[in-house]
Amino acid sequence: MINQLSWKVGGQQGEGIESTGEIFSIALNRLGYYLYGYRHFSSRIKGGHTNNKIRVSTTQVRSISDDLDILVAFDQETIDVNYKELHENGVIMADTKFDPKKPEDTQASLYAVPFTEIATELGTSLMKNMVAIGATSAVLDLDIKVFEEVVQEIFGRKGQQVVDKNMEAIQAGYDHMKEKLGEKVGAMQLDKADGQKRLFMIGNDAIALGAMAGGCRFMAAYPITPASEIMEYLIKKLPAVGGTVIQTEDEIAAVTMAIGANYGGVRALTASAGPGLSLKMEAIGLSGITETPLVIVDTQRGGPSTGLPTKQEQSDLMAMIYGTHGEIPKIVMAPSTVQEAFYDTAEAFNLAEEYQCPVIVLTDLQLSLGKQTVEPLEFDKVEIRRGKLQSGDLPEIENKGYFKRYEVTEDGVSPRVIPGMKNGIHHVTGVEHEETGKPSESAANRIAQMDKRMRKIENIKFNNPVHKNAPHEEADLLIVGFNSTRGAIEEAMGRLEQDGIKVNHAQVRLIHPFPVDEILPLVQSAKKVAIIENNATGQLANILKMNVGSHGKINKILKYDGNPFLPHEIHTKCKELF
Amino acid sequence: MATFKDFRNNVKPNWCPGCGDFSVQAAMQRAAANVGLEPENLAVVSGIGCSGRISGYINSYGFHGIHGRSLPIAQGVKMANRDLTVIASGGDGDGFAIGMGHTIHAIRRNIDITYIVMDNQIYGLTKGQTSPRSAAGFKTKSTPQGSIEQAISPMEMALTAGATFVAQSFSTDLKDLTALIEAGIKHKGFSLINVFSPCVTYNKVNTYDWFKENLTKLSDVEGYDPSSRELAMQTLMKHDGLVTGLIYQNTERKSYQEMINGYSETPLANADLTLDQEYFDKLTAEFV
Question: Are B89 and B70 in contact (CB under 8 A)?
């Protein structure tokens, strides 16, 4: 019996690789296993190698695994590209159709299975994926009944006959492979799962759901990988609560429309990836100087320019903190799990209204698109707080005086009104302005307004700005990361502890303003610090140096080849520090 | 009920004496009063440029944004609060150069706002460079040999983009302009009003006298019918775009808001932000 399994299916893009992984995953998730799926795909619709790697475990996993147990291949390229991940008892199941060849330097076993042939005999070659799922079930000695429900849900609309045919295909794959395996049936039998029904979702689902729960009722966005799922989800679900999504003509329209909508009084969102964020920068400054709430999601991918549009990277960090010309208050949050993505997105709308500034929810491709098992999302933990938004009757202002929308206050936050409110008329402009919003170039006013704006986020209230797992008062090593590296770091940490190295872990959740008070003691109590990040220059490491010093202690462990960190890579690189 | 004086504030415009924009401002104030608005129910969103300052000169909610983006901001405001009257405004550089993408798409999207362009065929605030509305051969600081690019024909362009309300006016025709803005506000959908608003400082070609000489009033064109898109296009081409009046109106097409699936009939700005626990549970159940 094994307590976790790593399974990968690969082939040409557009031949159903994704849905094969989906059906397999949903069924296992419903049995109570924890899953983590990561897709390797290209920026094209048909053709090109794609694969879906799925990790199944009896405990929570948040990283792709170092190695591979089972590889299902629909073409030779899948074998050639992926076989090195297989361990010596690994199994390759490949379609006989392409006469699969096993590379010489692997101990894994190759089984040629007539996926396409069996499927064609049953009616259509499209069902070859179902045959593969059946064959996998034989290796795992899994009762194929577990797939009935999912197959019914997916194909039910097409009629019972289609459902039955697909189940037959799974059965046929199972029978064929069972015979081939002989005694080896169930060679990789998984421990029984707890049967709990948990959520199975990608980070972008959680972000969209978090936006709904956080009161977002309007979104303006332009399609881009890996952010589009957010708008696609919200356009389906917002109408039920009266809201909607507009697909705009470009990224600038998306962000400025969101600014207009927030100014108009609705909680509005825009989401994009690096190229889109680059285009939104001027408008982010507008939100900053006009103190208009704004929530933006940045799903990081490989940059610069078009870069690696379907690959993992974390290189937008500096741009998100400093991006826009001039100086504005801004909040940048970086959830590291799907749950955090949900809570943080909801909270972003509160912070945007409380501090009247742009709030960026930073994720990365691995977190945004990695599909995983998630513990229940607690709706009652989501609050709605609207800061100094005025309600009710406002006092009359004489002589057509304007409402002091930019009143200089102690905490820097001014009372906010929205269009339509009587006695609330004021001016809003991206030009420097005085308390009523009228343009002003006075030096004293400039200082007063700039100080007021920057003061707003000095004492920002943010629960758990750092996810800490710090069992040691004095540690040999502090590992710091942000966004999706959390899972791989946690696994590496366990292995390092087994090696006798005392490790503390900090995953930075509030990137800006940087939570110095939380991080500094951890840095001070560690002999060495390793910053794990998917970029080439060590952006988080540099931010850390800037904020907490300790230059001599800080080591950068970087990966920027487009792929997520694997636990063993972090483990090895950290060990090399000693 | 508010009068046009209620839409005046105590800010003195920084436009040059004689600038056409003064009249556009007056027409907007009169139109707002004539359609029965209260100052707090009007939001004027403007771009960057001399004319972009207009949102600060009217006693209403005003948003002076960034160059070329008055339209997406204005559409966002309208989406947030469908009960507000939203007017976007700016110059020809703002709307037909840097913001042209938004102009075309706002036209075809047909959200119920009014867009007033103060067209002076020159960049004024940056002190005299060519604009996409400058005629070929027009000499400016950035085109010392004369512009070698073709000028944009915004009215023809609007018609091809699927506009439902297209009008053009001249800043000195205060009465006609006011009536057109009123009609634009009342129109259910996107209304585009291009106003020839002469720059007395940097444009010595397209002057008040030049317009008086060259403009044709559509009311003087025999048999003109603004419900005919074909006639509108023909007439514009015949007069090289130099016509004033209501060029085209389509009253049959519904506005964007009227067509959105599930869009709240009350302003989203007033929406209850708390989701129903039951609805939330329904949403999460889809992920099991």
Answer: yes
